[in-house]
Structure formats: structure tokens, C-alpha cells
Design brief:
By secondary structure, the protein is mostly helical. It has a single domain, classed as MetI-like fold (Orthogonal Bundle). The protein is built from 11 helices and no strands. Helix 3 runs parallel beside helix 6.
Length: 269
């Protein structure tokens, strides 16, 4: 195995330190007894209790989860359909315009996207709330799903679907029984990406959210503007813990699937 040079080791160390030391400090100060986030006054978990009693923060978290779930699901369905049309239907009239409209949110500034959606909702008389946030997040998350699914469809073996059609399956049955199970990992990855983007969005949600629907990023941003509260540290620590557990779980599941597939291939060989 090739050994890493001293330069690479130092670069990786500094890079990881730059990324993770601020998170470590945040986690440590979430257990600070003092209300001042920069002064350590002893170990305490009272801010986690205060967070659980903060109804506005809990409501914002539930709104964020609902918006992320529905927008990512809708974006996955539409993004998968768009990717299938672009990859499997070849050239058709308006394909360039269609693909450009699909991928435009990738390079469009979020401020422009949020402002244009706000003007659209005002023009059609749609009150801002959870629905408008879901529609807005679906708009920009769909293109990411389309990119992920398209990369899998490009390497898909068309003969498998053709064989299903020759055996009497309808095009929809061939897609549901043959194509979809094979591209399922890409579809799931697209859903997870859309879910993460929706959870993290602040700019677009600030344009399309109404008084009755405040997402967690908006709530945190408005709270931080008045000063960093230990409750924010506690909330951030919980989010870091959830993400860490999710990443570790996904890595273990993926590793087990790879090991199982290698074992099956070895037994078949």
C-alpha cells in the first residue's frame, strides 16, 4: 500500500480540524450550565430540557420534517420521470428546452428562485404556508433527483426491459418490475438528497413561508440574530447526533450488502 506523504497528512489534518473542531466546540458548550455560550460554568443538561419545552422550536421542527418528506417524495417522483424521459426516449421535439428547464435550478441563485416563486404565488392568489414551501422545495430538489437517476439510467442494460416486453409485459409493468428495482438505489439516493436539501434550505423557504409555517432553519436564523442561545447549541447537537447515526447506519447496511453480493458471486462462481 502506498504511504501518504507528510504534506498529505498535514493537509488532511488541517482540513478535518477546520470542519469538525467547531462542531466539537458546539457539542461541548451545549452542556454548559451558563447562559453565556462563551463562558464555561460547569456541566449541565438543563438546556436540553429547556429545548423540549420550547413549543415554537418543536413546531418549527415538525413543519420542517413534514415539508422535507412531502417535497422530497414529490421531487423523487417527478425527477425520476424526467430522467427516464431524457435518457430513454432519445431525441424528441423540445428536448433541449425540456432538459434546460429541468436543470436550470442547479445554476439559478436561490434568491432568484425564491423571489420568482413568491411572485408566482402572489399572482395566483395562493396563501403562503406549508403548501407553498413544499412546492418551492420540490421545484429546486427535482433537478438533483433527475441528475442522480439519469446517471444510473445511462448505464442501464436496455435488453432487460426489452426481454420483459417480449415476454408480454406492458411498458408500465416492465418499468415497475424490471427497471425500477434495478435503479432503486439511485432513486433512494435522490430522495435522501432532496430530503437533506429541504431540511437545510433557508433562502427559498424565507420567501415562500407564511406566518403559520416557520421552518427550523428560519427559526434558528431569527434566534441567532438576537444572540446565540444555549438551546441552539443543544438543538444543533441533537441534529449532529441524528445525522451521525444515519450515516453510520447507511454505511453499515451498504457494507453488508456489498459483502453479501460478493459472497453470492463467489458461491455462484
Amino acid at each position: 500500500m502506498r504511504r501518504m506523504s507528510a504534506f498529505n497528512i498535514v493537509s488532511l489534518t488541517l482540513g478535518f480540524a477546520f470542519l469538525y473542531i467547531p462542531m466539537l466546540i458546539l457539542v461541548i458548550y451545549s452542556f454548559n450550565e451558563s447562559k453565556l455560550v462563551t463562558v464555561w460554568a460547569g456541566f449541565s443538561t438543563k438546556w436540553y430540557g429547556e429545548l423540549l419545552q420550547n413549543e415554537s422550536m418543536i413546531d418549527a421542527a415538525w413543519v420542517t420534517i413534514k415539508v422535507a418528506f412531502f417535497s422530497s417524495t414529490l421531487a423523487t417522483v417527478l425527477g425520476t420521470m424526467a430522467a427516464y424521459v431524457l435518457v430513454r426516449r432519445g431525441r424528441f421535439f423540445g428536448r433541449t428546452v425540456f432538459s434546460g428547464m429541468i436543470y436550470a435550478p442547479l445554476v439559478m441563485p436561490e434568491v432568484i428562485t425564491g423571489l420568482s416563486l413568491l411572485l408566482l404565488f402572489i399572482a395566483i392568489g395562493l396563501d403562503r404556508g406549508v403548501l407553498t414551501i413544499v412546492l418551492a422545495h420540490t421545484t429546486f430538489a427535482m433537478c438533483y433527483v433527475s441528475v442522480v437517476v439519469s446517471s444510473r439510467l445511462v448505464s442501464f442494460d436496455d435488453s432487460l426491459e426489452e426481454a420483459a416486453l417480449d415476454l408480454g409485459a406492458s411498458p408500465f409493468e416492465a418499468f415497475r418490475l424490471v427497471t425500477l428495482p434495478i435503479i432503486a438505489p439511485a432513486v433512494i439516493s435522490g430522495w435522501l438528497l432532496a430530503f437533506t436539501l429541504s431540511l437545510d434550505d433557508l433562502v427559498i423557504a424565507s420567501f415562500t413561508a407564511g406566518p403559520s409555517a416557520t421552518t427550523l432553519p428560519i427559526k434558528i436564523f431569527s434566534s441567532v440574530r438576537l444572540g446565540v442561545s444555549p438551546e441552539i447549541n443543544a438543538l444543533s447537537t441533537i441534529i449532529i447526533a441524528i445525522v451521525t447515526v444515519g450515516v453510520l447506519t447507511a454505511s453499515l447496511v451498504s457494507k453488508r450488502q456489498i459483502t453479501r453480493r460478493l459472497n453470492e458471486e463467489a458461491q455462484a462462481g
